[in-house]
Amino acid sequence: MTTRTRYFVITSLLVLAVGLGTGLVAFYVGLPVVGGGSSNPSELDYVPRTAAVVAYAEVREIMVSDVRQRIRRVVPIPEDGQRAFKEQTGIDIESDIDHVVASLEPQADGKTAGLVLARGRFNEATIETLMRQHGAEVEEYQGKRVMIRTSPSGTAGETFALSFIEPGLIAIGNPPMVRTAIDLQKTGENVRMNSELMGLLGSIDAGQAWVVGRVDALQSGRSLPAGIAERLPAITWFSVSGQVDSQVSGTVRADTRDEQAANDLRDVVRGFLALAKLQAGSRPEMQAMVQSLELGGTGNSVALSFSIPGEVFDTLPSRQQ
Amino acid sequence: MTARDAGPKPGVVASALRIFDLSFGQMLWSRRSIFLALVVGGPIVLGAGLRLAEASRVMFTFDAPRPAGALIYGVMIWLIYVRFLVPVLGAFYGTSLIADEVDDKTLTYLFTRPIRRSAVILGKYLAYLVCTVLLLLPSVVVVFFLVVPIGRGRTVGEMFPVLLTDLGMLALGLAAYGALFAFIGARLKRPLLVGLLFALGWEPAVGMAPGYLKRLTVAYYLQALVRHDMPQPEFRPAAALLQAFREVPSVGVGLLGLSVIIGAGLWLAAQATEHREYVLEQ
User: Fold this and answer.
1) Contact B51/A36, CB-based, under 8 Å?
2) Ramachandran angles phi, psi of A48, nearest 5°
3) B63, B66, B67: residue with CB nearest A296
4) A171 in a domain, yes or no?
5) Residue B249, min C-alpha distance to chain A (Å)
């Protein structure tokens, strides 16, 4: 074997060895992505394969964003719900949670069950004590403590469960959904196996918040109001992704059953855009926002991108006055 | 006393390894390899281009959904590697194992050695396999790391088992095509033409047709080991037609079929080399 042949063999084997070694490390401990889109949140491991809608939000970053501070100054957001949640669970949404993954899954009875997976800093003892004080019962399920808070009226829809499924990760939802999330740790039959939904998720831009979902599943699950459901017959999938910092920017995309439906939808959106431009003509502060609206998409896909400057929120009618 | 009377003939395996040692360097630095290295580099250039487009946001605008990297990688494995590069590498190298020696009129030097003729083809087949595996598999690994992180589909870690399967599947494909084309090269005149007709004509045509003829292709058994969804054409009737005629065997049948092709191909190639009278045209 000549020297150059030996060099070729060594180089080739080196590329293979480095590649396989890196892949092995990524397989076991994960690998930060360089120069590409960000990877999916690890909480998807607990979302059922049959989920119709999956959403993600970087709560902490959104809470401290410039846009949110502007909105809070102009329109103080009622915090009754947040406060009630904190009183019942001990979790402060503003400071304790880093990001959340939420999902909706159609049920056999036609309703939709939700699951929220929140990653952050939680004091397990305090949360359990507070929930017990508010009438929650604690059960052991697959080695995890599940706290179930039944509503005083006894309606199933108001009963929710909370479980610490990993250090720093809580699952909140109706009790069967939380138990399913715990089961998924072992079965692995999670939403990552849903190639259609994961394909759509992979196609959207990285952002601080996103939602992807199957409209037909929501329609069959009667999750949408009848008026809206009737007007969305041709949309199969939808996605929204956005970024909230000194402005709010993002893209709304809808995939339709066929090209004709997509063209019809584009016509409708064009009509709304024309109307918005007409309205914005008399309001200079809205013109930048309306100008940023851009309709696009090819084939079965319709996309609308937008960018709302932070200054627009300063012009909202103040509720403090 | 002639060389043949000098001592006992070495075994087939030892002889094949000696031929492998002689042939590997020649095969690797032939003009054919330089050309095929450029072809194999094509997917890497494509992957790098996609990655740059992703990073600079030149290509993926909001106008069209951005495809997930894992999906692009799957399509590249199907269309570039399984459907094109593996059969073409097999055809170019496999058919030339004996044919090149005939064309260069150097076959006599090999056949007058005190070794079995079948050891010549086996050693050259081994050189082909090592050469093509060392050319193709690093290309797949580089493409994997360039393309999979695009978008926000499955991550490198999640796709790693698929990469391992792909590498094994492609190596098996090279072995199967190589064995078949080694037989064609040892048995027929103008083997490259026949090989390319088989790889780029017969296999795609029969693969889309209904019936049992597709079982007479290597691709039928190879596709059982591919873990990516088969790409669908945009043209809906064509997609429906493909769906109707698609028949993917089980992994067991695929492995068995490829093993039979490798075994039978090599045995037939060895038999053809042992018994055929090669005429070196002056």
Assistant:
1) yes
2) -60, 150
3) B63
4) yes
5) 21
Considering the domain boundaries, does residue A320 fall inside one? no
Same domain, A251 and A219: yes
Taking CA atoms, B231 is separated from A176, B114, B275, in Å, by 37, 51, 44
Q: Is A30 left (phi over 0), alpha (psi -120 to 50) or beta?
A: left
Q: A193, A228, A247: which is the final residue of a domain?
A: A193
A16: contact with B, CB 8 A cutoff: yes
What's the rounded Cα separation, in Å, for the pair A67 and A73?
Answer: 10
Mark whether A151 and A216 lie in a shared domain.
no
* Sheet hosting strand A97-106, strand order edge to edge: A137-141, A144-149, A160-166, A169-173, A112-120, A97-106, A53-57, A209-214, A235-244, A247-256, A301-309, A294-296
Cα gap B143→B42, rounded to integer Å: 10
State the DSSP code for A48. Answer: B
Q: pLDDT per residue over A4-44, tens digit each?
A: 888 889 999 999 999 999 888 888 876 554 444 456 787 88
What pLDDT, on the 0 to 100 scale, is given for residue A220?
A: 60
Token pair listed for B202: 């017969």
Instruction: Give A-chain residues touching B138 at CB under 8 angstroms.
Output: 12, 15-16, 19
Instruction: Please tell me whether residues A204 and A294 are part of one structural domain.
Output: yes
Backbone CA torsion sign across B10, B14, B17, B22:
negative
**A16–B137 C-beta distance less than 8 A:** yes
- Co-location of A132 and A256 in the same domain: no
Task: Give me the domain span that covers residue A237.
Answer: 197-315
**Cβ contact A203–B68 (<8 Å):** yes
Neighbouring residues of B23: CB distance < 8 A, sequence distance ≥ 6: B123, B124, B127
Q: Nearest chain A Cα to B72, which residue?
A: A199
The ipTM estimated for the assembled molecules is 0.82
Interface test with B, best of A193, A197, A205 (most B CBs within 10 A): A205
> Per the structure, how many domains does chain A have?
2
Please list every residue in chain A whose beta carbon sits closer than 8 Å to the beta carbon of residue B134. 8-9, 12-13
If asked whether residues A75 and A17 sit together in one domain, one would say yes
Of A144, A176, A149, A170, nearest to A160 (Cα)? A149
The rounded mean pLDDT for chain B is 81
Residue of A nearest to B131 (CA): A9
Q: How do residues A66-80 score in pLDDT, each as one tens digit? A: 777 777 776 666 666
Residue A84, in any domain of the structure: yes
| Helix orientation angle between B251-275 and B117-147, rounded to the nearest 10 degrees | 140
> A204 and A183, same structural domain?
no
Digit-coded pLDDT (tens) for B196-235: 898 888 888 887 777 788 888 888 898 888 877 666 554 4
Residue among A3, A6, A15 with most chain B CBs within 10 A, to mutate: A15
A116 plus A142 within the same structural domain: yes
Q: Choose the mutation target among A5, A42, A54 for the interface with B, i.e. most B CBs under 10 Å.
A: A5
Measured between CA atoms, the residue of chain A closest to residue B23 is A1
Backbone angles phi, psi at A301, to 5 degrees: -110, 135
Asked if A193 has any chain B CB less than 8 Å from its own CB, the reply is no
B145/A contact by beta carbon, under 8 A: yes
pTM for this entry: 0.60
Nearest to B115 by CA among B275, B263, B3: B3
User: Which residue of A9, A31, A251 is in closest CB contact with B157?
Assistant: A31
| Residue A183 resides in a domain | yes
